[in-house]
Amino acid sequence: HVQLVESGGGSVQPGGSLRLSCSASADSHKAFCMAWFRQFPGKQREGVAAAYTGGRTTYYDDSLRGRFTISADYYKNTVTLQMNDLKPEDTAMYYCAAAGSWICVTSTWFLVEKYGYWGQGTQVTVQG
User: Which of these, 85, 59, 81, lies nearest to 71 by C-alpha position?
Assistant: First the structure.
């Protein structure tokens, strides 16, 4: 069983930055594929970025690469999402998710149904 706790959401002006963190607690210490998804009102969750906590492999939605950076810490079982140059269209609920390490490949990291563990979500609002 895995529990995920997110922190770091909030409100920021356009061009600002926010850093989201997600901490995973599990029955045993192992590497995961941990990801951030976001959900706009009335829309499906979409993948933002993912990281393999046992190495340096990362994946991004191409439209966000360059502004968003994901990093993972195996020993702390945490994943962070640094979001820079935020835009109003980034306003959404952001969710942390965890899955087996094998999900962290190009073809599956962004698939909602592959993740069995989810955080409660944290709101990010970008407005002037």
Answer: 81
Q: Give the mean model confidence (pLDDT) for residues 64-90.
A: 95
Distance CA 117, CA 54 (A): 18
For the stretch 94-120, pLDDT in tens is 999 999 999 999 999 999 999 999 999
Instruction: State the Cα–Cα distance between residues 21 and 121, nearest whole angstrom.
Output: 11
Classify the C-alpha dihedral 77-12-69-44 as positive or negative: positive
The count of C-alpha atoms lying within 13 angstroms of the C-alpha of 72, restricted to the half-sphere facing its C-beta, is 26
The Cβ-side half-sphere exposure at 79, using a 13 Å CA radius, reads 33
Asked if 110 and 46 count as a contact pair (C-beta separation under 8 A), the reply is yes
Six token digits for residue 26: 């599990």
